[in-house]
Amino acid sequence: MLINIALVLQRFQLELADPAYELELKSTLTIKPWNFRMKVRRRPGKVLTVGIPGGVSSSVAKKHEEQHGHAQSVQAQDESSNAPLSIFFGGNTGTCEALAEDLKTKLADHGLSASIGSLDTLTEHTPDRPVVIITSSYEGLPPDNAKKFVAWLEDVSNKNTSALNGVKYAVYGVGNSDWASTFHRIPKLVHELMKKAGAAEVVDIGLSDVKADLFGPWEDW
């Protein structure tokens, strides 16, 4: 158990999901904390899938960490090279938010800063910086924290095909192929509507199937 804890702490930063949480114990077969939740964030320079079957090899991870050290050195030499961007997520289970946090950490590895927010906070307030959108679908419908954004984007793209001129964006979608008829519907819709409204994609849309492999396509993207 101690080794497992050490491995987790080596790769991830942990913090309370609710900073105001007060310990409450629940007894079943064992005693455990009740409603105790934590946020897990990859430590800078640590590859997300190292040590996981299908993940990157330790040699690749070592190379990544060496590059991370170089990136920190470059960042210290020239802070003006930072290129801020905004990351927005839509999801009900926390997966897309976790990917957003992972991307933010990866960007920091290369001296880039980023902000994170739910997709609904992007509604009618497009920032003057590149935008990364990470979202899922639920039976073909937007997640709870992306409903307003998708409705707004549909309206804007139908009324004004130049409304998002000058906006640079990228979309990553998460879905489950068990729901074949609506698989990745919302990520693909958002990607199409952003382009229709005049935004310029900076990279092809990326897609993961949680049934098959969530992290592989994400790392490639």
TrEMBL record:
Pfam families: Flavodoxin_1. Residues 70-79 have a biased composition (Polar residues). Signal peptide: none annotated. Residues 85-221 form the Flavodoxin-like domain. Residues 60-79 are annotated as: Disordered. SUPFAM superfamilies: Flavoproteins. Coiled coil: none annotated. GO terms for molecular function: flavin adenine dinucleotide binding; FMN binding; NADPH-hemoprotein reductase activity. The keyword Flavoprotein applies. It comes from the Eukaryota. GO terms for cellular component: cytosol. Keywords: Flavoprotein. This is Cytochrome P450.
